[in-house]
Amino acid sequence: MNKIKFCFLSALLSCLVGSAWAAEVSDSLKFSYALGSSSTFTFNYPSKNIAGEDIVLSSSLVVWTPDNPQETDSIEALHIYSHFTITSDHECPTSDYNLKERALFTLLIRNNYGSGLDPDLNYLGHAILIAPDFEGYGVSRDVPHPYLSQELTARQMVDAVEYGLKLYQKHVNDKRTLPIKTDWRTYGFGFSQGGAVALAVQRYLEEQAMDEQLHYRGTICGDGPYDLVATLLYYINDDGNSYGQQTEHRKGMNTMPMVVPMIIKGMLDTHPDMKNHALTDYLSQQFLDTGIMDWLESKMYVINDIHEMWYEQLQEGLEANGRTYTPEQMAELFYPPREDRVWARLDKLFTPGFYDYLLNVDVTAPIPAGGNPFVDLHRALSENSLCNGWEPKHRIQFVHSRGDMVVPYGNYLSFRDAHPTGEGSLYRVDDSITDDHIDTGVTFYLNLTTLGSYGKYFQWFDEAVPTGIADIDGLTPDPSLLRRGEIYNISGQRLSKPQKGINIVNGRKVAIK
Length: 513
Prior knowledge:
Blueprint: H1 2-18, E1 30-35, E2 38-48, E3 54-64, E4 75-82, H2 99-108, E5 127-132, H3 150-173, E6 180-191, H4 193-207, E7 216-222, H5 228-237, E8 253-254, H6 259-270, H7 285-289, H8 292-298, H9 303-316, E9 318-320, E10 323-325, H10 327-333, E11 334-338, E12 341-345, H11 346-349, H12 352-360, H13 373-383, E13 395-399, H14 410-418, E14 427-430, H15 437-448, H16 455-462, E15 487-489, E16 494-495, E17 501-505, E18 508-512
Helix pairs in contact: 3-4, 9-10
C-alpha cells in the first residue's frame, strides 16, 4: 500500500500548490515552443460553466510557421481538436509534459501533409490547430471536469476557437505571422471522448448558425461514446460476440473501470435532474473505498497508474475508511486479465439496485417522471446522446472498431439508426480496424498523421462545399495583408497585390482604404 499512500500525498501537494495559481484571461498568445514547421502558443479564454457563471479556461494554439515563408503563403485551414479521455492534468494539451500530443500536433501542422504522398492536401498542414484543455484541466484544474456533458463542452470549445482566432489576428495585424486566407476551411476531429466532443461541436455550430462563419467542412470521429445508455448496456449484456467481431469481453464486465464513475460524476455535476442524488446511489461502497474518486479528483494519475494501484489492492487486500477487504474479497470486484491490469465485475461495482435497473431497463419505453435515482441517471445519459434530435448539415466520417470493448461499435449504430437516410452521403463509417480501444486510438492517429491515409476523408468533406460562406466578425484578416488567391480590380484586371478601392479577392468584393 506504500505506493498508493505516496501517490496520494503527491497529488494532495500538487493540488495545494495548483490552487494558488490565479487564472486570468489572456490578452495575447503566449509562445510555448517551436517544433518542426509549427509554433505552439497557449492562451486563457473566457467562458461559462454549467451554472452560467464566468470561468477562465485554457487552450493550445498550434500554427504553421514555415522556415522560409513565401509571399503567397497563408493559413488555409483550421483544425478544432478535441482530446481523448484523460485522468491526469499532465495529459492536457497545454501541459509541458504532454509529449505525445506535441508530436501529434507537429505532424498535423506541416508543409507536406501525409508524408508528401499527395501534394494537393498540403493545405491541411498550412493550418491553425486549436486544442482546448476542457474544463477541469489546465488553468481550471481545481474544478471538476464535466465528463461527457456534451453541450457544455461543445460551447466551451467554440468559445476557445473564437477567442483564439481573435488573439491570432493580433499577430497577423502586427505582421508577426501568416494571414488567414479569406476562404479557409474548418475541420473537427477527435478520438474516444474527443470523438464525441468533436461531434458535439459540429452539432453546436450548426444549431447556433456558426458553421458558415467558420467555413465548417466536416468532422472525423473516432470511437466516440455518442450513446451512453447503449455503452452501459453493452457492458451488461455483451458476451464477446457483438457486431460480428469476437472479443474477450463477457457479460457484466467492464474493461476500463474508471470510465463508469467518470460518466456518473459528470452527470451528477451537470444535469439538473441529478442534483438530489449521490455516487453512493450507483457505485458500491467497496468500489468507492478503493480511492477511485480521490484519484480522479487529484488529476495526478494516468489510466495505467490507476490500474496498477487497483492491481496492488487485488494482490494485497484493502484497508480504507475503517473497512477491511481481503484479497479474496477484492477478487470478487476485480479480475486481472493480465499483470498490472484489472477489469471490474459490474454486479460488484454498481449498487444492487442500479445493477438490477440496467439488467431490466426497456430502452424503447419513455423515461418516466423524475425522483428515482436510476431513472434520473437514465434521463441524463439519454439527453447527452449525440444521436437524436438533430439533422447534420455537414459530412461526418466515423471511424469505429467493431472490437472496441470500452466504447463499443453500438455507438455508431445508434447514430446510424437515428439517421437512416444519410448513410453514405451525409455520414459514413470506416470499421476496418478490429482492435480494442487503446490500440484503435493509436491506429487512428497514425492514419491521421504519419501515414496520411485519412486525407481522403478531408477530400470527401470538400466535395460537399457549403454555399453562402461569410466572414467572422472581427476575425477576417485585414485585406491589405491578404497574400493568397487571385486578385482583380473592379474592371477585371488581375493585380499582383491588393490596391485601394474595390478589389475582387478569391471571388469576393473587398474594400481597401
